Amino acid sequence: MASRDTGRIVVGLVIFLVLASFPVWFSATQGRSDYRPELEYPAGETKCVESKEYMRTWHMDLLNQWRDSVVRKGVRTYTSDAHHTDYDMSLQNTCMKCHTNKANFCDRCHDYVGVSPKCWECHVEPRGAE
Amino acid sequence: MTAILALGAILILILLAGFGSQVAGLQVVFGVAVPYAAIALFLGGLVFKVMSWARTPVPFRIPTTCGQQKTLDWIPSARFDNPHTTLGVIGRMALEVLFFRSLFRNTKVDIRPGGRIIHTPAKWLWAAALAFHYSFLVIFIRHLRFFTEPVPGFVKAIQSVDSFFEIGVPSIFLTSFLLLGALGFLLLRRLVSPQLRYISLANDYFPLFLLIAIGTTGVLMRHFQKTDIETIKAVAMGILSFSPVTAGGGALFTIHFFLVCVLFAVFPYSKLMHMAGVFMSPTRNMANTNRAKRHINPWNHPVAFRTYEEYEDDFRDKMKAAGIPVEKE
Ligand code: HEM
Questions:
Q1: Residue in B86, B149, B229 to test binding to A, most A beta-carbons within 10 Å
Q2: How far is the CA of B143 from the centre of ligand 1 (A)?
Q3: B102: which residues sit within 8 A by CB, 6+ positions away?
Q4: ipTM
Q5: Distance CA B102, CA B108 (A)
Q6: How many whole angstroms from B18 Cα to the centroid of ligand 1?
Q7: I need a surface site. Which of A126, A130, B108, B189 has the fewest CB within 10 A?
Q8: Nearest CA in chain A to B57
C-alpha cells in the first residue's frame, strides 16, 4: 500500500541516483571517458634513471630521496639500480634535461590523475615547451 | 567472540583478494565481475529497501520531541525540536544529518558512592562519529579523481585543502588519518566497555574492520607500497564507461578495491542502510501537528454513524412515556 509520502521518497531516490551516477554522466558528457594521456618521450634517449615500471610508480619517491640526499647529506651522485649509470641528483638538471617538455610529459600525466606537484614554485621549469 | 568472527571474515576476504590478484585468470573476476556485481547489489538493494520502507504505512505522527510543542501564541515553541511546519522539519532533519544532533544528546549514567545516580554528558561518540563521517565524505569526493576525466575543480580544491600542510611527498591527506583515528576509537569503544561489548553484534564489528582495512590499504598504497595510479585510473574509468580493461594493479590495490566492492555489496543489507534510513525516521521527519490538525487514519473503514439527535427523533415518544428527559420537546 502506498503511503502518502511515497511520491516524495521516490523523488529523493531519484536525486540520490543522479548524484551517485555523477562520474558516469560527467565523464560521458565530457566525451573523454576513454582518454589516456599521450606522453612525449625524450628524443634520442632510450632509458630512464630506472626501469619504466619503477619510474611510473616510484618517481615521486625517488625525487624525494634525491632531495633529502642533496639537501641533508650533500651526496649528489645517484647510481641506477637498473643499469648502474651515475646521475647527478637534480630535478632541473637531470630529469628535466631529458624530459624537456614538461607540459607534454609530466603535466599530461599529472592532469590525468589530478595531482599538481608544488615543486615549480621554486624549481625552474625547462623552457622546452615554448 | 563476535568481534573475532568479524575480524576472521575480513582476513579471509583480504587473503582472497591478495592471492587472487596473483592468479592471472582471476583478473576478470576481481576487475570486472566483482565491481559490477557490487554496483548492482548496492543500487538494486538500496532502491528495493527504500521502496519497501516507502510502502510501509505510517498512519500517525509520532512526536518524540524534546521541546515545547506549538500551542498558544504567547508560549514560545521549540521550532527545531518540536517543529510544526515543514520548514521546521527540514531544519531538524538537516541538523540531524549534518551535525548528528541526537547523538550530541548522548549521556552516560554513573552510580556514585552512596548509590546516587548521575547523568553526565558523553560527547566522544558524537565527536568520533562526526570525524569519521566527514572524513569518509572527503575521501569519497577526493577519490572522484580516479573516476572522472577531466578531474572537476571541486575535487582538486578539496584535495589541496586536505593536503594543506604538505607533509611528505606525496603529501599526507589529513582526512586519511582522521578516518583511521576515528574508526579506531569507534572500535575500541565497543571492545573496552563490557556493556557495549555485550550488545555488539558481528554486524557492528564487520563494517568497522572493513573500513579500517580499506583505509589502511589506501594509506599503504599512497605512502609505503606505491601503485601505478595512472593505470588504476584507466581501470576505474573502464568500469564506469562500461568498457572494462583488466590491467591488474598489484595485490594491495586488489585488496583495497575488493574490500570496497564488499562494502558496497553488503551496504543495503546491513546497518549501514541508516544512510537512507535517517531520512525516513518517523520521529524525525514528521511535523508535530497532532493538535493543530485533525489526522484521519487513511485506511479507516467507513462507519455508519448514528447521532444522538437521530436516536432521540426515533424514540422521543417512548422516552417521554417512560419519563426520560429529552432535549427537543
Ligand atoms: C569506500 C570507498 C573508499 C575508501 C573509504 C577509501 C579509502 C582510502 C584511503 C583512506 C586512502 C589513503 C589516501 C587518501 O586518502 O587518498 C586511499 C587511497 C587510495 N584508494 Fe581508496 N578508498 C575507497 C575506494 C576506492 C576505490 C573504489 C578505488 C579504485 C579506484 C580506490 C583506489 C585508491 C588508490 C589508488 C589509492 C592510493 C592513492 C594515492 O596513492 O594517492 N579507492 N583510499
A1: B149
A2: 6
A3: B96
A4: 0.90
A5: 14
A6: 16
A7: A130
A8: A3
Instruction: Measure in Å the smallest separation between the Cα of A74 and chain B Cα atoms.
Output: 20
CATH 1.20.950.20 fits B2-321, yes or no: yes
Residues in contact with ligand 1 by the CB-under-6-Å rule are B 136, 139, 142-143, 146, 170, 173, 176, 179, 214-215, 218-219, 221-222, 227, 229, 232, 236, 253, 256-257, 260, 263
Domain ranges of chain B: 2-321
Domain boundaries, chain A: 52-121
CA distance linking residue B208 with residue B187, whole number of Å: 7
Work out whether the CA dihedral B236, B237, B238, B243 comes out positive or negative.
positive
The cell numbers describing B73, all together, are 501564541
Q: Distance (Å) from the C-alpha of residue B128 to the closest C-alpha of chain A?
A: 26
For chain A, give me the number of helices (H) and strands (E)? Answer: 5, 2
Q: Which of B222, B223, B230 to mutate to test the pocket of ligand 1 (most atoms within 8 A of CB)?
A: B222
Walk along chain B (329 residues) and give the pLDDT tens digit of each residue.
Answer: 789 999 999 999 999 998 888 887 788 888 889 999 999 999 999 999 999 998 887 777 887 778 888 888 899 988 888 898 889 999 999 999 999 998 998 888 888 888 899 988 889 999 999 999 999 999 999 999 999 988 999 999 999 999 888 888 888 999 999 999 999 999 999 999 898 999 999 999 999 999 999 999 999 999 999 899 999 999 999 998 888 887 767 889 999 999 999 999 999 999 999 999 999 888 888 888 888 888 877 778 888 889 999 999 999 999 999 999 998 87
